[in-house]
Automatic annotation (TrEMBL):
Family: Belongs to the non-flavoprotein flavin reductase family.
Transmembrane regions listed in the UniProt entry: none
Protein name from the UniProt record: 3-hydroxy-9,10-secoandrosta-1,3,5(10)-triene-9,17-dione monooxygenase reductase component
Record's keyword terms, sorted: Monooxygenase, Oxidoreductase
SUPFAM superfamilies: FMN-binding split barrel (SSF50475), Winged helix' DNA-binding domain (SSF46785)
Flavin reductase like domain residues: 16-159
Pfam families: Flavin_Reduct
GO molecular function: FMN binding; monooxygenase activity; riboflavin reductase (NADPH) activity
Classification via InterPro entries: Flavin_Rdtase-like_dom, NADH-dep_flavin_reductase, Split_barrel_FMN-bd, WH-like_DNA-bd_sf, WH_DNA-bd_sf
């Protein structure tokens, strides 16, 4: 246990960082009309009646004087997809508003769009708190959106997600004794099969096997794809079947062999117009299945699960991220 006499400042910061918070951007307008703002996670609610909120501003901030004098400011609670905006407003000085689509709030305060919530405030009081100035604001107006919030924890951006309902228990006592229903392989495998089962009727209608669909969809990623690229891309997913699947697509006139391949040494493939149209139709149908599933899950958790699966994929299949290179423009 550290006592104040022996504080290591870095350790102190780390200990404070264990308190997970949302992320906000607070904006105001300086006397000369300049829009100002900074990223802040010291925001908190104070009182419901009257409606009061607080946050603290470092004495060293470039915007310090303007905020100290400001009669009005706005708190923007950031959404999960606003990490870049957060980083932009955490940079010192700079024109942070360039290129942003703004609204005009009470007292001429610049308002950002696409946030989880916004609180337009009037400065109610200020208190010096060590190397920060604490602002208490009376909320004059607010709005909010059903969107996942951005979270900050341990010095990093994070996601917020609902916890499993406490009552989740293995449905089968037998499984509880074996590898269990929370075995990652079971969860991923079952999710994949159930998800894909909803897409398969569209493939059947188009007369495509799963393998042919994977290859067809992969061929949309580049104008032309070498046999080698395709084999690498399908490695661990299709193995030897990719050759048979691409041949089946060629036989049906959905793809063709490009000879000689301009950018490659060996054989390359490209989609025919029919192939591209079919691929785009099937991808749209697969996406509509995705939206139905994600709608039931809720937007906030949809963002989280995708982020986690991307991280899992980066651990389990680091090649996947680099395989296909830049998408065609
Ligand atoms: C997640 C996060 C939270 C922050 N919270 C605060 C805060 O509560 N108060 C503060 O003064 N600075 C905070 N900062 C730092 C400011 O955003 C940063 O110093 C900014 O450059 C100040 O802008 P200015 O110097 O242009 O006024 C935070 C930064 C990040 C990334």
């Amino acid at each position: 246990m550290s006592t104040s006499a022996t504080f290591d400042p870095l350790e102190f910061r780390k200990a404070l960082g264990t308190f997970a918070t949302g992320v906000t951007i607070i904006t105001t307008r300086a006397d000369d009309g300049t829009p100002l703002g900074l990223t802040v996670n010291s925001f908190n609610s104070v009182s419901l009646d009257p409606p009061l909120v607080l946050w603290s501003l470092a004495n060293s901030a470039l915007s310090f004087d303007a905020f100290r004098k400001a009669g009005h400011w706005a708190v923007h609670v950031l959404a999960a997809d606003q990490e870049e905006l957060s980083a932009r407003f955490a940079r010192r000085g700079e024109d942070k508003f360039g290129g942003l689509d703004l609204e005009q709030g009470i007292g001429g305060v610049p308002l950002l769009k696409g946030c989880a919530a916004r609180f337009q405030c009037r400065t109610a009081s200020q208190y010096q708190g060590g190397d920060h100035l604490i602002f208490i604001g009376e909320v004059l107006a607010f709005d909010r959106d059903e969107t996942a919030p951005l979270v900050f924890h341990g010095g990093r951006y994070a996601h917020a997600t609902r916890r499993d309902p406490a009552g989740i228990k293995p449905r089968s006592a037998y499984l509880a004794g074996s590898f269990g229903e929370d075995f990652l392989g079971y969860l991923l495998g079952r999710s994949h099969f159930r998800f894909f089962a909803q897409i398969r009727p569209y493939l059947a209608e188009a007369g495509l096997s799963d393998e042919e669909f994977y290859v067809l969809a992969s061929l949309t990623l580049k104008p032309q794809m070498s046999a080698e690229d395709l084999a690498i891309g399908m490695q661990g997913v299709l193995d030897e079947q990719s050759q048979a699947a691409v041949q089946a697509l060629v036989d049906r006139g959905l793809a063709r062999i490009v000879t000689p391949a301009p950018s490659t040494a060996g054989t390359a493939y490209e989609l025919s117009d029919d192939g591209r149209n079919l691929a785009l139709r099937l991808i749209a149908q697969a996406k509509s299945v995705e939206s139905q599933v994600l709608e039931r899950l809720g937007h906030a958790d949809a963002v989280v699960i995708k982020s986690l699966l991307n991280r899992l994929l980066a651990v389990i299949d680091p090649q996947a991220a680099v395989l296909w290179g830049e998408p065609p423009r």
